[in-house]
Amino acid sequence: MSKAPPTRILLADDHHLVRRGVRLILEGEPDLTVVAEAGDGAEAVEAARTHRPDLAILDVAMPRMTGLQAARELARIQPDLRILILTMYDNEQYFFEALAAGASGYVLKSVADRDLVEACRATMRGEPFLYPGAVNALVRNYLDRARQGEPIPERAITNREEEILKLVAEGHTSQEIADILVISVKTVERHRANLLEKLGMKDRLQLTRYAIRVGLIEP
């Protein structure tokens, strides 16, 4: 019986040392191989188009495009691609957003050497991989909603508004944002006004604080 080829992995993290460490963990296993690396979410999407990996491992907080934004885009353009979130944030909000974005698992960097290989294998078997705290969060959230008879809340802002919020918080001008997203300055300004109104904020500083709080940029 011929042996299955190794799982081809795309690894995205904006810290080179983290990528090197994770690559060492993965490349020590005969059934896993890293075929591409990326330093931010946008690079990850491009690398996925080029290399067609089986599995993408994405950090949450990355420049230009977060891991969660990249996961949503990858789930849209390559529905068969399996996605794992690898993060330092033991944070329920990111965890639920990761699931909503199409990720099959959520692994904490602090225990990557223990959990990551098994998470990769579970994901490729079509099984979710959740660390214990995430399982507790999931159960608690389900019980709370069941008690209150509530559906899962919708996200406050659209994907496009989130892209613009991140770029505003990173200090880009409206013209620069228009160039990056290939849209008009007028469209950028309209989205920006919508963001301020939806979030009940007055200026760029408040938007930046919000972006930090929800993990779109690092403080």
UniProtKB/TrEMBL annotation:
Protein name in UniProt:
Response regulator transcription factor
Which residue range or ranges hold the Response regulatory domain? 8-124
Which key words tag this protein in UniProt?
A: DNA-binding, Phosphoprotein, Transcription, Transcription regulation
Query: Pfam families per the record?
Result: GerE, Response_reg
**Known CDD domains for this protein?**
LuxR_C_like, REC_NarL-like
Q: What is the organism lineage in this UniProt record? A: Bacteria, Bacillati, Actinomycetota, Actinomycetes, Kitasatosporales
* PROSITE patterns linked to this entry: HTH_LUXR_1, HTH_LUXR_2, RESPONSE_REGULATORY
Known Gene3D superfamilies for this protein? 3.40.50.2300
Q: Which domain of life is it from?
A: Bacteria
